[in-house]
Amino acid sequence: MNKVRVFAPATVANMGCGFDVMGMTLDGVGDVISVEVLDGEGISIINNSGVELPEDVDSNVVTPAVRALLAAYGECKKVLITIEKKIAPGSGIGSSAASSAAAVYALNVALGRPFSDERLVEFAMEGEKLISGGTPHADNVGPSLLGGVVLLRSYEPLDIVRLPVPDNFCCSVAHPEIMVSTRMAREVLPKEIPLRTAVKQWGNVAGLVAGLSLKDVYLVGRAMCDVVVEPYRKRFIPQFDELREKVLAVGALAMNISGAGPSVFALSADMKVAERVGEVMREHFAQLDVKSDIYVSKVSNQGARVLND
Ligand code: HSE
Predict the structure, then answer these.
(1) DSSP assignment of 106-170, as one string?
(2) In 3D, which of 185, 201, 190, 278 has the Cα closest to residue 237?
(3) pTM for this entry
(4) Disulfide: which of 94, 106, 159, 188 matches 4 by Cβ 3.0-4.6 Å?
(5) 197 among known catalytic residues
(6) Domain boundary assignment for the chain
(7) Whether the CB of 259 sits within 6 Å of ligand 1
């Protein structure tokens, strides 16, 4: 198969307290990328998305990811990529990551699957490095490729842990029509944090992992609390604290910024509550004259997959 079309899902990075080390997979929303491999050399990209993407190949996130895979493969190939973007760039639900994930997944299939899915995470991270101002991170590309909830226990060496997802883990995501670039959202973060803050955060990260392992969605909810990153990023989201009060009042267990924002996500233990939370989020942004897209789903255990098998 030298032409492969792949879907890679949107993702929620950080999951509250797990900045750069935790991420989960959404259902039903994602990017589609086709890759054709021919003899020769070079990468060309066609944008079939209806949204603007960088026109030169070197500025597109998929390029460093594809180059990293080809370098490891060790043979020259000509790679033709067609991008059908469904996730708005800068949305905070892993738009660039889904493209990088889909591109390396499709290329790997087209080459006869020389690499494991875990190895593909390393290649896709190169795309994240391009858009984040130099720091490769895998909390979006990991779940987009692998599905479910993913923990990056270590980056050097890369140690990927797939965590169980409680059955009643229901997620509401609102993507308000505001542009927040990952680079900007990372630049506002402090380089150092006080020990007392770190103690709170690692208690929560441990609680999050324990809650997932014990399938205790209430413990997950208590632990989804970010004292490190959120204080610096919530200013990008209109009336963030008020929105959290509203969604907790209708039964959500936690609400946080999704990835670098501006999307927010809330956890609920029941789909009906999650749907109500989605409505509350939509109303909140509508009252502020901000349009929003709402997604309500359980966490998906399916990551990137071929569409033309
Ligand atoms: N962990 C990343 C961040 C996700 O919060 O900046 C966005 O790429």
Answers:
(1) HHHHHTT--S-HHHHHHHHHHHHHHHHTS----TTHHHHHH-SEEEEEEETTEEEEEE---TT-E
(2) 185
(3) 0.94
(4) 106
(5) no
(6) 3-164+301-306, 170-298
(7) yes
Q: Which CATH architecture has domain 3-164+301-306?
A: 2-Layer Sandwich (3.30)
* Band (309; pLDDT cuts 50, 70, 90): low
Six-digit token pair at 228? 């490190």
Q: CATH classification of 170-298 is 3.30.70.890, yes or no?
A: yes
- Asked if pLDDT for residue 308 goes beyond 90, the answer is no
Cis amide linkage into residue 9, ω under 30° from 0: no
CA distance 97 to 14: 14
Task: Give me the catalytic one of 55, 128, 187, 242.
Answer: 128
Instruction: State the CB neighbour count (10 A cutoff) for residue 219.
Output: 19
> 215 is written with which tokens?
């399938």
| pLDDT tens readout for residues 205-226 | 999 999 999 999 999 999 999 9
